[in-house]
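quick one, 178 residues, struct below
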Amino acid sequence: MDGTDIKNFRKINKLSQKDLAAIFNCNQSFISQLENNERPIPNDFISTLLALGSYDVSMFAKDNDSKKVKEATIDQSVAALINMMQQLIDNNQIIAESNKILAQNNSKTVDSLNLISQSNKSLADSTSQTAKSFESISESNLKLTETNQLLVKSNSDLVSKLKAGRMDVQDAECADVG
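---
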């Protein structure tokens, strides 16, 4: 790896010397010296760039440096996988908490449905009792109607007999009492 690789990296990733200097916390002139091969490239240069994870570092994968790039890429991939696993763990914890809340809400819903069911049963029982009461009242009304019809017939017979003169007043009085 030499200064040309650093310059290519910077251009491919659309970074100025000043931008690259900010990444390495150095001044722009140090980057210029690296690109012009006036200074040795620090050993941790590639791993620092890989750790950022947002730059194309493929231009460093040649000869002696390819092992470093591969190792750094593996380290970066492992770090990304660990990060993703932590996100999955966090998401699973959120899902578990949500499921717990849903279970509590479902329990409350079941309790409410049980209360509604009990209320419906009570209402059905009341309706049944009311129907029985109406049936009893209907039977009583029917008996009263039959009794009234008998009384009307009996009174009608009495009136007919009185008109026909077949009965004297004393017999009529007895019939009224009976």
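Residues 3-60 form a domain with the 434 Repressor (Amino-terminal Domain) fold (CATH 1.10.260.40).
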